[in-house]
Amino acid sequence: MRRWMGILAGIALVLGLLPAPVGAQTAGALVASGLANPRGLAIAPDGTIYVAESGTGGPEQFNAGPPFGTGTRGTTAQITRIAPDGSKRALVVGLPSVTLGPEVIGAKSLFLSGNTLLYTTGYTLGTDTPAIYGPFVGRVDLAASRATNVADIGAYERANNPDGFTVESDAYGVAQAPDGTIWVADAGGNDVFRIDTSGRLSLVGVLPGIPGGPPNPARKGAAERDAVPTGIAVGRDGTVYVSLLTGAPFTAGTAKVVKVGPGGTFVDFATGLNPTVDARIGPDGNLYVVEFSAGFDLSANPPNFIANSGRVLRITPSGQIAVVAAGLNFPGGVAFDAQGRMYVTVDTDNPPQAGALGRILRFDTLTPQPFTPTAPPVPAGPAPGATPSPTPTAAPVAAAPPAQQLPGTVVPAQVPTSLPNTGGVPVELPLALGAGAVVAGLVLRRRR
Predict the structure, then answer these.
(1) What is the C-alpha radius of gyration for the chain, rounded to an integer number of angstroms?
(2) Could you read off the pLDDT of 425-445 as tens digits, one per residue?
(3) Between the CA of residue 364 and those of 179, 180, 197, 348, what are the distances in Å?
(4) FRET pair for 322, CA 20 to 30 Å: which of 166, 178, 363, 404?
(5) Are 148 and 406 in contact (CB under 8 A)?
(6) Residue 277 — left, alpha, or beta (φ > 0 → left; ψ -120 to 50 → alpha)?
(7) Global pTM?
(8) Are strands 60-63 and 49-53 parallel, antiparallel or unpaired?
(9) Residue ranges of domains in the chain, CATH in brackets
(10) What is the DSSP string of 40-56?
């Protein structure tokens, strides 16, 4: 799974990817700013907003190998709480954050159910990635101010590598079904996991590659790209939806949303989409999907995703698609409040040196506009559709106590103390990073 084709990585690193310009947004009210690469959102009934900031990497340099080159990593990702009056404070700090070229990978998706906040964070590449970087599915007990580990997705990838390609894991989307089970999309491993109510982790299936393009060395020479599953959502009827970013060159119209079928299969639900990064069931029961950009512009200097071209789509259970927000600059996550208003994170993909440019916009009224799919190129392989995956297998979460696996320290409001250290990092470090750390890694899979 490669987030950049070698040629794209080389160009971007040589030229230095600058922060994208911030353009006009579609009629959204500014709710919060000064966020570092904000990704997922969750909103409590009282209007409190939780946002995942991906962070700025860290002081440790490492060689990720071609086409990535040198990266940095540390524990600068965090989850931030924004009160109804607009005041911000760090809720969970000391979460893993990794930079590879211009990309920051940290905390990504949030899901709130009662007093329980689920999140994904971390990244692994290769079998020698230190365990502290996960990635993990974490849980915050908001009433007890306690963060614990739900599952170590990175450990599963390193031990099993279900798709058989590069050992890479980036637990991205997370959602909880009405029956209490947790669903996770791994953008790095190209697979979907399920965690039952006893905490047992099982592989649901591996997503097939996206047909088209030249032979891909990262996929054993097949003329296809990675699926790169990002968002995941569970409908009221229990249907599980997974949105795909796809791999480089991120051609417009080749992304899609699939449904999880029986026996580890994936069935196309909505096609002709641009690269997607989040999926959420709205208060109306429809699926809302975030398109990060209209695609990748190789002619730009430097080459980059197309700015101010992101959208939020509404997809009904019957598959009817409408555009409810457009002209967004690199949106990362979507959520709804108790009044049905829609919130979107924007300006979510900036290199660490650019500063905290991320914002949250609120849309009080949604006016659906017609959706016109972009015609994808003719695939160079079999047409996509229902595709069988490996038989689901179950594997228990690592036996070590959760507090020994999950980095992250809850910072109670107004109290300068924290829980016992949970990640082998001095307690003073996450406290010092505090509110300055950044939200969970949008981690847009710059893959093949």
Answers:
(1) 19
(2) 222 223 232 333 322 333 344
(3) 31, 30, 36, 21
(4) 178
(5) yes
(6) alpha
(7) 0.81
(8) unpaired
(9) 6-439 (2.120.10.30)
(10) EEEE-TTS-EEEEE---
